[in-house]
Design a protein that fits this description.
The structure is a single chain. The chain has 207 residues and is α/β, with parallel strands linked by helices. Helix content is 29%, strand content 27%. It has helices spanning 43-52, 71-78, 91-104, 116-122, 140-143, 146-155, 175-180; strands spanning 17-19, 29-31, 61-64, 83-88, 109-113, 128-133, 159-169, 183-191, 194-201. The strands form two sheets. A seven-stranded mixed sheet has the order 5-4-3-6-7-9-8, with helices on both faces.
Length: 207
């Protein structure tokens, strides 16, 4: 959920709030900070993603590095992730994320204010089960794929051997493009302007 995407807010939620879909905070509605073009991941996309992941993330450690509204990372925590890092650079969004973490008493969730790529390069390596990547759609580097490629490459060092990445983008990334970056495409969904991808590391023996 990027801090400065173009496009639309979810048609399923008012632009000023997101809803947790499943887990211990199911149905909780959380305020969203104000930032130009903020585009929380739509409810139906999140529901499909967590169906792909098997609903229960108990014991997992996840990173949401373009956190925005925090919907992806907080959804993971609601479903049992024991540690979640939300990284966001926009000060207004950081403030609301911190308030929502306190509201939920989400002890395993921490908010980092800063650049996504820098965070990917500085977090501990090989200890994370999943990384959520939703770069800003209106960033020129996102449009030409540079930001996404850099984030995908940086995410490799974070993951445990069976780790996964969720990638949200304004266009589809082909299996060939992803394989060249060390990833295997496991699932893809298009919902309006959003292309959702679930990726496994290319060296992951699991399907």
């Amino acid at each position: 959920m990027p801090s400065a995407p173009s496009g639309h807010a979810s048609a399923e939620r008012p632009p000023g709030e997101v809803r947790i879909i499943g887990g211990r905070w199911r149905r909780a509605r959380l305020p969203v900070g104000q930032a130009p073009g903020l585009r929380p991941t739509p409810d139906r996309v999140r529901e499909t993603l967590f169906n792909w992941l098997g609903q229960d993330l108990s014991g997992c450690r996840c990173v949401d590095v373009f956190a925005g509204s925090g919907a992806l990372g907080l959804e993971a925590a609601s479903r049992g992730a024991v540690e979640v890092v939300l990284c966001e650079r926009h000060p207004a969004l950081v403030h609301v994320l911190q308030a929502n973490v306190e509201r939920l008493r989400a002890e395993g969730v921490r908010v980092l204010a800063g650049d996504a790529l820098a965070t990917l390069h500085t977090l501990p390596a090989a200890v994370w089960d999943g990384v959520f990547l939703d770069p800003p759609f209106d960033d020129a580097r996102a449009c030409d794929g540079h930001l996404t490629r850099a984030a995908l490459q940086a995410a490799q060092r974070l993951l445990r051997p069976l780790g996964w990445v969720y990638l949200e983008a304004p266009h589809v990334w082909s299996a060939e493009q992803l394989h060249a970056l060390g990833w295997r495409l496991h699932r893809h969904l298009r919902a309006g302007q959003v292309h959702a991808h679930l990726l496994w590391r290319a060296d992951n023996p699991q399907p």
